[in-house]
Recover the amino acids of this structure.
């Protein structure tokens, strides 16, 4: 069985079990930027939340925003599987998933949902099983999916939850082709979830604008750019979200658009904004790479009973 080791433990987040547990506890308990309390599942029989957006910067900057996402995902019940939609930063140009194996974190291992992953690949002509997207130095050291996993493991503790990492690397194509590709991939993923009858939550990993911010005026301009993307997302409008995101330095236009497309296929009816802030808001430092972070969940009107 292949093991994808944690490549960013000890740098982007704490590298040992005890240190990471303490770090995550502080992030969840933060009352200004985080949810203000530790995650706890009510163990309901049904769920309304089927999708979410989570940032993927180092925990020092975006950790509280991500804590909001996972606090809300798990408060209803622990899903069987979490599908993680990751963006590409290093030149991968396919849509590839990790079909089997485990992903290691300092808090323990997370197994791949191999049966659902294989079913997605069987259904789809676009999504492929591709280990190179997650292993090796060329594409495999991407951080944006890995950053999500300690949050998942911390929230579920010893309870069983599986994951499917899917890496999107098609931003280089023109807008029309890219959207059509995302739409078809989303249809395939949604069909597989329905066919397999899995209790699934989909998480899109992305940071928002990356801007050179020197003063409050620059910061306001940056936030307006993010607002255009957020407004499209909250309106459940994949096309306007994709278009707005491509006109910014948001690093995951593919992931947030795909999330909307998948969840609308699964009958999502509402997007609920949880938290938005920037690295300047959090740390008070202007710089060449001031970054926005956004947490939001997607809900269905009538609970899904699993």
């Amino acid at each position: 069985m292949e093991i994808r080791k944690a490549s960013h433990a000890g740098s982007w987040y704490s590298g040992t079990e005890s240190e990471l547990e303490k770090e995550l506890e502080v992030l969840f308990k933060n009352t200004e930027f985080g949810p203000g309390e530790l995650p706890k599942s009510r163990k309901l029989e049904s769920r309304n939340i089927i999708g979410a957006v989570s940032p993927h910067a180092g925990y020092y900057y975006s950790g509280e925003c991500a804590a909001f996402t996972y606090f809300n995902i798990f408060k209803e019940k622990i899903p069987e599987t979490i599908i993680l939609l990751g963006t590409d930063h290093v030149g991968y140009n396919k849509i590839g998933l990790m079909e089997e194996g485990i992903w290691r974190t300092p808090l323990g291992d997370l197994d791949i949902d191999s049966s659902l992953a294989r079913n997605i690949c069987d259904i789809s002509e676009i999504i492929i099983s591709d280990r190179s997207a997650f292993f090796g130095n060329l594409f495999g050291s991407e951080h944006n999916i890995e950053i999500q996993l300690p949050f998942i493991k911390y929230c579920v503790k010893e309870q069983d939850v599986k994951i499917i990492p899917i890496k999107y690397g098609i931003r280089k194509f023109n807008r029309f082709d890219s959207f059509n590709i995302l739409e078809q991939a989303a249809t395939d993923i949604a069909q597989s979830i329905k066919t397999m009858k899995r209790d699934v939550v989909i998480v899109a990993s992305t940071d928002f604008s990356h801007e050179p911010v020197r003063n409050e005026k620059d910061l306001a301009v940056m936030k307006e750019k993010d607002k255009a993307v957020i407004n499209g997302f909250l309106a459940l409008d994949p096309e306007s979200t994709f278009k707005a995101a491509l006109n910014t330095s948001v690093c995951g236009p593919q992931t947030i658009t795909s999330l909307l497309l998948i969840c609308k296929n699964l009958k999502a009816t509402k997007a609920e904004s949880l938290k938005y802030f920037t690295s300047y808001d959090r740390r008070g430092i202007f710089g060449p790479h001031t970054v926005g972070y956004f947490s939001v969940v997607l809900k269905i009107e009538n609970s899904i009973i699993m």
